Amino acid sequence: MRDVTEILAEAGLPTAVAKPLDGGFSNETYRVSGGPVEAVLRLNGHQNDALGLSRTAEAAAVRAAAARGIAPRVLAAGADHLLTELVPGPLLTPEQCHEPRYLRAMAHVLAEVHAIEGVDRRCDPFWLVRTYLDGARKLGVPMPDGLDGVLHEVDVIEARAEARGDGMAYCHNDFYRFNVIADDGRLTLLDWELSGVGNVYFDLATPAFHEGCTPEEEHVLIEAYFGEYDDQHAAALHDFKYLNMVREVGWALLHAGLDAARPDVEHVNHSLDYAESARWFLGRILAGHVTARDA
């Protein structure tokens, strides 16, 4: 990765100061002070080398989302970085993810995301899972026992989604609470790196799987998004909770391979053990769980 000061100088901020932010499991992020506005700089990691998603289209998506009031304003963008205006406010909390008010707010902000048009960037979740795993294999990462059966279930879920005619729209595809600023019920979404046209249930299922939502909470989320609740919506959400779990396995295996290929690189934002994370999520799946925590 290029030096932070070099990128800031190119952006017209030669005297700005950058300090590492927590998180950023795929990239490095910094809070930038000393410019006209407080900002956040993301240095792009190597995940995109495997995915081949357009950085230009990502920046266009963030600009489109910012125009809808659901993303930060883009200040500068390049192949190896994205500089956005800092959005004040706390991150969405685990507790808020179970409150009806915020479940409805999540449904409403996702409806805004899914209304984005004109950005030519596809990131279907089935493609995403398979591309992560293909990238991990190319890096020499051994595939864990039990994964073949899980991938067969992914094929079954994909066939069911096609038979249902699930809605396709521009999706965020990384709708975790640590990517959401919550300011008195108003949500702003960060980290659009994986965004693209995909299946709307994948976005809806992300908080449901990650936060261990109860069936009653999922009912609130589905009804707020679709205006109704029925068994087909519930079944689709369950399918994509499973797919979210598998995505975690593929993502972690890819990043384990990327780390092994660059043993001299140190992370500035976290100390996550990617290989252990992959084993943990796969173990949960094989044990019959479709959530990252018990509801």
From TrEMBL:
<dbReference type="InterPro" id="IPR011009">
    <property type="entry name" value="Kinase-like_dom_sf"/>
</dbReference>
<dbReference type="InterPro" id="IPR002575">
    <property type="entry name" value="Aminoglycoside_PTrfase"/>
</dbReference>
<dbReference type="Pfam" id="PF01636">
    <property type="entry name" value="APH"/>
</dbReference>
<feature type="domain" description="Aminoglycoside phosphotransferase">
    <location>
        <begin position="18"/>
        <end position="222"/>
    </location>
</feature>
<protein>
    <submittedName>
        <fullName>Phosphotransferase</fullName>
    </submittedName>
</protein>
